[in-house]
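Incident log, support desk, overnight shift.

02:14 A customer reports that sequence design results differ from what the structure should imply. Their input is reproduced verbatim below. On-call engineer (initials T.W.) acknowledged and began investigating.
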């Protein structure tokens, strides 16, 4: 038979083993719980980040769509303004041609009246003072016509330059109204003129 001392020793060893196993189990359970908590925290952070990214992408898509629509709208206004300026230039050219024709017609009528008056007096028409008078009348008409033409060309060129500027802006807006243009050069079109300023030619033409 085992002595009481041996029994107590065996019991102590068994209790110690049980206590050690319990501590190991507790540590293992704690580790699993910590790992599960960390995994849940990681999953939560990932989900939050994905949600934030989706929201940012949706907002960026809305902004890009709005920007493309604004560019298309600005394109139409710039094209209309360019056409208005072209029409103004053509109007100036037509007016200049009419004024030139009127100047030369008036000069011809004046020269005819002068020749009639000189012919009635019996003077020679194509020599001396009479020829100089007729030449002076023609020269005055040529100078007046040249001044009108120069002023008209200058004004028409100004309209045409403005039209070219509007057309250039329309081309930029057309590029910006496409998805490629908006994705590849988002800063280029933000420098376009404000929409309100593009209505000025419309107000002037009204």
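02:41 Re-run completed on a clean worker. Output:
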């Amino acid at each position: 038979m085992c002595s009481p001392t041996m029994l107590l020793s065996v019991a102590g060893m068994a209790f110690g083993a049980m206590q050690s196993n319990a501590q190991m189990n507790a540590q293992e359970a704690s580790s699993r719980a910590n790992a599960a908590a960390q995994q849940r925290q990681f999953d939560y952070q990932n989900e939050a980040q994905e949600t934030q990214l989706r929201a940012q992408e949706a907002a960026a898509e809305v902004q890009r769509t709005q920007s493309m629509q604004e560019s298309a709208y600005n394109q139409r206004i710039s094209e209309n303004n360019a056409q208005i300026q072209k029409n103004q230039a053509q109007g100036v050219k037509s007016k200049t041609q009419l004024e030139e024709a009127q100047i030369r017609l008036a000069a011809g009528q004046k020269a005819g009246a002068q020749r009639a008056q000189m012919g009635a007096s019996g003077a020679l028409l194509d020599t001396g003072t009479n020829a100089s008078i007729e030449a002076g009348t023609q020269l005055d008409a040529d100078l007046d016509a040249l001044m009108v033409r120069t002023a008209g060309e200058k004004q028409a060129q100004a309209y045409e330059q403005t039209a070219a500027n509007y057309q250039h802006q329309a081309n930029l807006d057309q590029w910006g109204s496409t998805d490629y243009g908006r994705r590849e050069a988002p800063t280029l079109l933000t420098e376009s003129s404000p929409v309100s300023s593009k209505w000025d030619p419309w107000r002037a033409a009204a």
